[in-house]
Design a protein that fits this description.
homodimer, 300 residues, alpha/beta, UDP-N-acetylmuramoyl-L-alanine:D-glutamate ligase, nine-stranded mixed sheet, four-stranded mixed sheet
């Protein structure tokens, strides 16, 4: 089974303590789709500008990523400029230029509308609802969002939450959405809004998976090389949803394994700028690191 | 085998979103010793003032904690005043009154000098060196320190690090001590300074144990009830060292189990103010939560 992603494709200018890059491939749908392509075929719905390099499009296609839903619009591609300090956690945003993304109105092509696995990356909840109205009967819908939408479109966000199976957010988003500082209580409140599964991303501290079966803690491998954290969250989501779609996962043990695979893929993403590490990734490397992740929390 | 702790006994004024307490029992040696007493006998070296309630001393003794090394000095007991916000992570220090702790000069009684297991809580590295000169041939010496000593007594701290087996610090202390932001590299640099084992405490995100055998990640149970985080780190150290001393641990699997026991004890400490939850703790509760911790990162 393939997975459908609706999100952004961007050109980023990034500065970290380890280097500086201009106009590199970025955006939630880019990271997600290359991450997911390790496990399954991917279909993207996104928009790019006239300046978007054809080489990137060819690269996507070479990873079994269907671009039928990617529209080329008049104007420039969405651009984000960010700088990371030594703690490598929160970036300082130096500039956000929505460009063609400003009028993004996702249209799901007919040949995408039967998809069973759907990921709604972090965009306006109204657009996310719009997408859900265009897909027939998906088995697993996962959603990302952010504080901005929690604060500015709470009603639309609640409507879309009622229709998703998996919510993938970070600690502070979970707490803010629930209006409750204690994470386990917050998780219960958020799950009452709709999602059967809540995944709380904690960056270098791993991820928590909440479900009716309890809590699972996926560690994040303490990395030697962190060059650029951009795209870690979207790669996590891509590894997670790709694994679920590729293996048609329905049970909780499968979901746990999918979370660990998400962490594994994200741990590669941050080793280089843009998707530079991801595009070199081999099946054996994923398996080796997956085993290392499991060993990390093993007593024996 | 019992464990020797050198640290502070304090009376704290604490405010959290869940309440306010004045003059409650605090200090590193207090939390450490009650935590450790779940697994072994404890000997404290510390100083209290004339205002220190006899009831607290009797309470310690009822937990098999030897107070022979606790000196009553003229003046008032060390007092810390702190306030926690909703994130419950870093407290705001409202006041620190060293009082009798200002001239604390730890003297190890003769009947303490043969101890095999020693914990040097977070005090001036010069005093920590002083203590090490007074103990004969300890098997395991563990040490806590903080950014203040890393910045202000780097030479003394390095001298004491050469003589300890286990360093227990947090993320930022590890990075600052190593002058290296990447935690795995920082860990190697710190271990080259002396300790064979480095434990990096990460609060609600668990703890990492670094040793020659690799990395172990102990999760921290996502808590429903966090009332007062004060003393979590010292309780962690107490659970860890108490478990090691009580079971005469020498192997790495034992150290891993000790880290999980440290996390377990700390998870109880934060459920109430002061040592109020710790003094009620039952063996079965420890075992039940220990199993829950292990289950947390279990795939099946």
């Amino acid at each position: 089974m393939s997975v459908l992603v609706v999100g952004s494709i961007a050109l980023d200018d990034i500065e970290t303590p380890f280097g500086k890059r201009e106009g590199i491939l970025g955006g939630s749908a880019s990271y997600f789709s290359i991450a997911a392509s390790n496990f399954t075929g991917v279909k993207i719905v996104a928009v790019v500008g006239e300046d978007f390099p054809d080489d990137h499009l060819k690269m996507f296609e070479s990873y079994n990523i269907n671009l039928h839903g990617v529209k080329k619009a008049q104007g420039k591609t969405f651009r984000w400029q960010g700088r990371y300090g030594y703690d490598l956690n929160e970036p300082l945003t130096l500039g956000t230029y929505l460009n063609v993304f400003e009028t993004f109105d996702p249209v799901i092509p007919d040949d995408y509308s039967q998809e069973d696995y759907v990921f709604l990356a972090n965009i306006d909840p109204e657009l996310q609802l719009n997408v859900l109205d265009q897909v027939k009967a998906p088995k697993v819908v996962a959603l990302d969002t952010m504080n901005y939408w929690i604060e500015n479109k709470p009603l639309e966000l609640k409507k879309v939450l009622e229709r998703v199976n998996v919510l993938i957010v970070n600690d502070s988003e979970t707490r803010e959405l629930a209006k409750e500082p204690r994470i386990t209580r917050a998780a219960r409140i958020v799950m009452d809004m709709g999602p059967e599964v809540l995944i709380v991303k904690r960056g270098e501290y791993g991820a928590l998976l909440f479900s009716r079966d309890g809590i699972f803690w996926a560690p994040s491998y303490p990395l030697e090389e962190v060059v650029d954290p951009t795209g870690a969250g979207d790669s996590f989501a891509g590894g997670f949803m790709g694994y679920i779609a590729g293996n048609e996962i329905q049970d909780i043990v499968g979901f746990k394994k999918a979370v660990v695979h998400g962490s594994v893929i994200a741990s590669f993403t941050v080793e280089d700028f843009s998707v530079d590490r991801l595009v070199l990734l081999k099946k054996e490397e994923i398996e080796t690191r997956y085993q290392a992740f499991l060993k990390l929390s093993n007593l024996d």
